[in-house]
Amino acid sequence: MEVLPCSRVAHIERKKKPYNSNIGFYTKRNALRVAEVWMDDYKSHVYIAWNLPLESPGIDIGDVSERKALRKSLKCKNFQWYLDHVYPEMRRYNNTIAYGELRNSKAKDVCLDQGPLENHTAILYPCHGWGPQCVMCLLKVGK
């Protein structure tokens, strides 16, 4: 393991995974557990990143009360402090009321996409779900 003074996050993984090949489920579950314990008002960002509904995502994260108690007993700073001092350039999706792919109602396999152009002009493109360029957010401010 290498510790880098300017690094933000680290994760050590086992060479051989002790669970089945459905790594996506375990990765999502762990991401939601981390969000619940550490991210405070920003935990919705994890749901957005995994394209999961904010309410009832369909993944049982188990009991995280011991983890929350540990965070409190260690007097860890809140996630807002982390954003302000460690990662101020993080894109924030505050006041999000809807997110996901925007599909054409007449051609279900076509989505709105940022497109390849430098100014990200919206285009219709085959739905692929491969990256953030096809995920749209509707904010309370109407954007």
Automatic annotation (TrEMBL):
Chain segments annotated as coiled-coil in the UniProt record: none
Keywords from the UniProt entry: Disulfide bond
Domain of life: Eukaryota
Leader peptide range in chain numbering: none
BP-aspect Gene Ontology terms: protein O-linked glycosylation
Name this protein carries in UniProt: Polypeptide N-acetylgalactosaminyltransferase-like protein 3
PANTHER family referenced in this protein's UniProt entry, alphabetically: N-ACETYLGALACTOSAMINYLTRANSFERASE, POLYPEPTIDE N-ACETYLGALACTOSAMINYLTRANSFERASE 17
UniProt GO cellular component terms: Golgi apparatus
GO molecular function, one term: polypeptide N-acetylgalactosaminyltransferase activity
